[in-house]
Each structure stands twice: as C-alpha cells, then as structure tokens.
Design goal:
By secondary structure, the chain is α+β, with helices and mostly antiparallel strands. Helices cover about 45% and strands about 10% of the residues. The chain has a three-stranded antiparallel beta sheet.
Length: about 70
C-alpha cells in the first residue's frame, strides 16, 4: 500500500483538513466531503488519496467570503 493509498482515521483527517469531527460528518451528509469507508462496526476511515484530492480541489477554488458554509 502506498502512502497515498493508506487509510486515514478521523483524527488524521481532522488534522489534515482543520475541520472538526461534527463538520466532517455534516459535510459528508451534504455530499461536500468524501464518504468514509467502514472498517469495522465502530471504525471508519478515508483513503489518503481521496482526502488529498479533495484538499487540492478546495485550494483551487476561489475564496468567496459572501458564500455561506465551509
């Protein structure tokens, strides 16, 4: 498994994105953040490559201070 294919746990994703847990889950519900992968009954994760792509896409978007949300 390459570094980009490794599975990130919630704390890792929170650190990388600067988003809180509740914001991550709210954004997943809205479809604005990649869905998690169920690892077990109580554990989820995200592919590092998917989170990295999401971050790169976000940094390419122009900042609009008049738009609501994150």
């Amino acid at each position: 498994m390459t570094t980009q294919d490794r599975i990130l746990r919630c704390k890792d994703v929170m650190t990388l994105t600067g988003l809180s847990r509740s914001t991550l889950y709210a954004m997943m519900s809205e479809g604005t953040f990649p869905a998690s992968i169920k690892l077990s009954k109580r554990a989820v994760g995200w592919r590092a490559s998917v989170v990295q792509t999401w971050l790169e896409d976000k940094t390419r978007q122009p900042h609009n201070p008049h738009q609501g949300g994150e």
